[in-house]
């Protein structure tokens, strides 16, 4: 009974080591993707001062459209209108993508 259990323990240890390695690789990939997204957001903010790709204005309303990295969710975006709606600041993941008068 003892040798079979020892062999099983070795296989279990290898599985645990493999799962740990796979978890570490997945974490590293997530970190690389997050860094790439931050770089993409910074480039978006720099390019054309973060101007929207589409801008529409009608009676008392403004519609602006930006193309953001696919992984950015709506919960990670903050919109700050100011000066009676004449100024707009949009922040995604701590990067101010747009901060200008309308």
Describe this structure as you would to a colleague.
There is one protein chain. By secondary structure, this protein is of the alpha+beta class. It has one domain. 44% of the residues lie in helices and 28% in strands. A three-stranded antiparallel sheet has the order 3-4-5. A two-stranded antiparallel ribbon has the order 1-2. A hairpin with a 2-residue loop joins strand 1 and strand 2. The radius of gyration is 24 Å and the shape is rod-shaped. It starts with a helix and ends with a strand. 6% of the residues are buried. The mean pLDDT is 83.
List the helices and strands and how they pair.
Elements: H1 2-46, E1 54-58, E2 61-65, E3 77-82, E4 87-92, E5 95-101
Antiparallel strand pairs: 1-2, 3-4, 4-5
Brief write-up:
It is built from 1 helix and 5 strands, in the order αβββββ. It is an alpha+beta fold and 102 residues long.
Q: Key terms for this structure?
A:
102 residues; alpha+beta; three-stranded antiparallel beta sheet; 1 helix; 44% helix; coiled coil
Q: Total domains, how many?
A: 1
SSE-based structural type: alpha+beta
Based on CA inertia axes, which overall geometry fits? rod-shaped
Low-confidence parts: none
Mean pLDDT over the full residue set: 83
Sheet with most strands: strand arrangement: 3-4-5
- Strand proportion, as a percent range, falls in 25-35%
Count of DSSP H/I helices: 1
Calculate the terminal CA-CA distance, rounded to whole Å.
78 Å
State the helical fraction. 40-55%
What composes the largest sheet?
Answer: 3 strands, antiparallel
Question: What is the CA-based Rg, rounded?
Answer: 24 Å
What is the string of helix and strand elements? HEEEEE
Report the strand count.
5
Keywords: Coiled coil
Coiled coil: 19-47
């Amino acid at each position: 009974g003892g040798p079979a259990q020892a062999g099983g323990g070795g296989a279990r240890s290898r599985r645990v080591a493999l799962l740990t390695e796979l978890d570490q690789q997945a974490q590293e990939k997530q970190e690389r993707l997050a860094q790439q997204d931050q770089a993409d957001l910074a480039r978006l903010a720099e390019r054309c001062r973060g101007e929207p790709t589409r801008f529409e204005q009608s009676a008392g309303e403004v519609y602006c459209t930006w193309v953001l990295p696919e992984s950015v969710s709506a919960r990670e975006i903050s919109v700050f209108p100011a000066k009676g709606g004449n100024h707009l600041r949009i922040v995604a993941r701590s990067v101010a993508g747009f901060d200008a008068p309308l």
